[in-house]
Amino acid sequence: MLYTVIAGIIALVVGIVAGKFLFAKNTQQKIDDAQSQAKKIVSDAQTTAENLKKEKLLEAKEKFVQLKAEHDKEVLERNRKLNDGETRIRQKEQSLNQKLETLDKQAKDNDVIKDNLNRQIEVVNLKRTELEKHQEEHIRRLEKIAALTAEEAKTQLIESLRAEAQTRALAIQQEIIDDAKQKANKEARKIIIQSIQRTAAEQAIENSITVFNLESDEIKGQIIGREGRNIRAIEAATGVDLIVDDTPEAIVLSSFDPLRREIARLSLQRLVTDGRIHPARIEEIVEKTRKQIEEQVMEIGERTVIELGIHGLHKELVRIVGKMRFRSSYGQNLLMHSREVANLCGIMAAELGMNPKLAKRAGLLHDIGKVPDEETELSHALLGMKLAEKYGENPAVINAIGAHHDEVEMQYVIAPIIQACDAISGARPGARREIMQQYLQRIKDLENLALAYQGVEKAYAIQAGRELRVIVEADKVTDLDSDKLSFEIAQKIQTEMTYPGQIKVTVIREKRAVNVAR
User: What CA–CA distance (Å, rounded) separates 267 from 255?
Assistant: First the structure.
């Protein structure tokens, strides 16, 4: 029993000792593991630190290289600017030195010239004194020979010169009067032609009437009305004369205002379609048609400026552009002419390196003075210039409009472009009402007129009849005669021919000396 207890105690002690040993062993193992892990962490940390250190060093080197490159670039740029500045300063110094040398030389030359002038003045004074002495001696001799004093001789000479001067003055006065009459006649013809051109009087029959076709002659009675009250109402409301004659199924609308004719035509068309024709209905239809035409005019103007790429145009100018659709000059529609001029101006301005939009704007507006709302005595160029100025257009556009017929001075480069394009559009064959036979005849007449002069070898009408080139024989016509011949041909064309715009006369004289070496 005792042995059993002792054995149990010994086993317990052995278990306790073994447990402590195992615990100590496990603890040591954990400590070893922890130390190993700590060493690994430290090693990893050192490795990471080394990597970060290398990366930072690389970044620092790259940053240094970049900053150094920028610094070198700035230094090079500064050195270049300094070198350029030094070069300019040297050039200015050289230029100043050259100018100083030139001034010194001029000063020396001026001193030499001044000395020469002083000597020449002294010589002239001496000669003047001698001349006065000789003149006094000569006067004494003349008085002795003529038995007249100097005052008496002077009086007689003045009287004779006065009579001769009066005779010559009368002749010169008569020449001036004749020349003034001739110029006055030319100027009067010019003013009359311009007035006719503005109102297109020679085309009055074709441009001032519109024929309204009817389905039958019975409608004429309805349009005339009882005792003519309907036709009088139409004429009063539209301002257009209605001519009802024996022409079958047609009524002629006569007015110089194309807008009024268009309003009357559309009103008649609506009245005939409606069938109710009486004064009250006529006034209502005419008023509606007038509003419709005004809207159509604005629509035409807006569409035109949009197609040409013109922006910021005043609404009133847009309306005037639309009105040009109903106006013609020499049979050429004014709106089509203005559009053509605008396109030509844009192309020409672009070729010259100028602003094509501004040129288009001026080309479109150059004839707005031909469609005024009120009658005025101003020419269409000056009236158009005032309208453009009133509605805030560019000064270059205003000047181009006023100067395209040389009525005001050209102040901008764009002005001659507008004038040239206007002449091109108006003078090309087929642009205005002129049949081909008349055009060809005018070209032949131009050439024959020049060939009639002595010494003219050949004559060519070019540029659609806008220029006449005359080739003369060098042996028969001198350079002075060439100027005179050009003037005489231009004057003869102006007095004997009818033509649009202007014609340039160029006389070409060429002298060739040819020898053959054998």
Answer: 15
Cα dihedral sign, 313-315-317-322? positive
- pLDDT tens per residue, range 224-272: 777 777 778 877 877 777 777 766 777 777 777 777 788 888 888 887 7
Mean per-residue pLDDT, 343-349: 85
Shortest CA distance to 219 belongs to which of 263, 250, 261? 250
> What would the pLDDT profile of 110-166 be if each residue is shown by its tens digit?
778 878 888 888 888 888 888 888 877 877 776 667 666 667 767 777 877 776 777
Please say whether the beta carbons of 209 and 231 come within 8 A: no
Q: Which two tokens stand for residue 233?
A: 């109402």
Tokens for 106, please give them.
């001029």
Q: Phi/psi of residue 272, each to 5°? A: -65, -40
Residues 45, 53: Cα–Cα separation, whole Å? 12
3-state secondary structure 415-428: HHHHHHHHHHHHHC
Strands 467-472 and 241-243, by their bridges, are unpaired
Name the packing angle between helices 258-274 and 279-308 (round to 10°): 130
| Amino acid in position 154 | K
- Rg of the chain over CA atoms, in angstroms? 51
Q: Is the pTM of this model over 0.70?
A: no
- Under 8 Å between Cβ of 358 and 377: no
Say how far apart CA 455 and CA 389 lie, in whole Å. 52
- Answer positive or negative: Cα dihedral of 21, 24, 30, 31: negative
Q: 327 with 334: CB under 8 angstroms? A: yes
Write down the residue that tokens 């002294």 correspond to: 122
Closest C-alpha to 380, from 200, 185, 189, 239: 200
Identify residue 254 by its one-letter amino acid code: S
| DSSP code of residue 325 | G
**Strand 328-329 and strand 332-333: pairing?**
antiparallel
325, 383 contact by CB (below 8 A): no
Closest CA to 368 of 343, 344, 331, 393: 393
Angle at 201 between CA 197 and CA 204, to 5 degrees: 135
Q: How far is 445 from 447, CA to CA, in rounded Å?
A: 5
Distances (CA, A) of 51 to 47, 164, 211: 6, 122, 102
